[in-house]
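> call design_seq(struct)
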């Protein structure tokens, strides 16, 4: 069995088919990553509907204009739902916009504080903002941190491992020219890796260009197994144990 730790299932029109196809490929649990308040209720509907689907709530840096103290309160209230298991995805995106850095940092910190207070793990989005992301995370006592779609260097990865963070590895690792992430996967212990699709984006090879979905998780696991020269079973069992532990999915 495998777990997709970061899927935007709320972006699909046919979640029944998507969840069924994932199960056929042994992807038995799916974590929905929240991006903004418009979709919070859709996420709650999905986790109520499917036994094996869990959720996280947060405001993505690209959705910064939708953030307010009321939204923070809404996240806190909805997080009492038994299947909301994380705050996310939250973080910094200087690729998309670096003009509003200060605002992004305020938004990120407010949600980290909430995660700390609620004792929930965080799913972090960090795009071209490595230094600020790492120094901000340092200031909080967080239960578990996943750097979703990890895009840093081997050196940054090793720093994350020392902190006990997890790296979310997705479709990019299957791209031929993605040399750095392949190197990262070789160096980082499997104990610090979780699998993710970030679907409908970042579709793994050989389906690149098509819509991504959780049933493609085994393609990512296979590439990790090849890079580390271990079996697919080992990748599946260790990353599943990691995700179960982070999100407390066995209860
Ligand atoms: Ni995402």
């Amino acid at each position: 069995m495998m777990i997709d730790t970061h899927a935007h299932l709320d972006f699909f029109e046919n979640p029944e088919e998507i969840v069924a196809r994932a199960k056929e490929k042994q992807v038995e649990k799916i974590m929905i990553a929240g991006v903004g308040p418009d979709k919070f209720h859709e996420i709650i509907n999905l986790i109520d509907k499917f036994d094996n689907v869990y959720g996280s709530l947060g405001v993505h840096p690209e959705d910064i204009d939708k953030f307010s103290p009321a939204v923070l309160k809404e996240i806190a209230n909805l997080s009492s739902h038994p299947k909301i298991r994380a705050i996310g995805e939250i973080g910094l995106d200087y690729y998309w916009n670096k003009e509003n850095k200060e605002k992004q940092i305020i938004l990120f910190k407010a949600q980290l504080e909430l995660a700390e207070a609620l004792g929930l793990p965080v799913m972090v989005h960090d795009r071209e903002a490595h230094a600020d992301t790492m120094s901000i995370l340092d200031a909080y006592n967080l239960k578990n941190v996943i750097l979703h779609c990890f895009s840093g260097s081997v050196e940054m990865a090793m720093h994350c491992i020392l902190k006990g963070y997890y790296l979310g590895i997705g479709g990019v690792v299957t791209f031929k020219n993605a040399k750095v992430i392949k190197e990262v996967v070789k160096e980082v212990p499997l104990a610090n890796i979780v699998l993710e699709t970030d679907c409908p984006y970042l579709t793994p090879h050989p389906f690149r260009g098509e819509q991504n979905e959780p049933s493609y998780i085994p393609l990512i696991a296979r590439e990790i197994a090849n890079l580390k020269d271990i079996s697919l079973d080992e990748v599946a069992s260790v990353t599943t144990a990691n995700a179960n532990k982070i999100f407390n999915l066995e209860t």
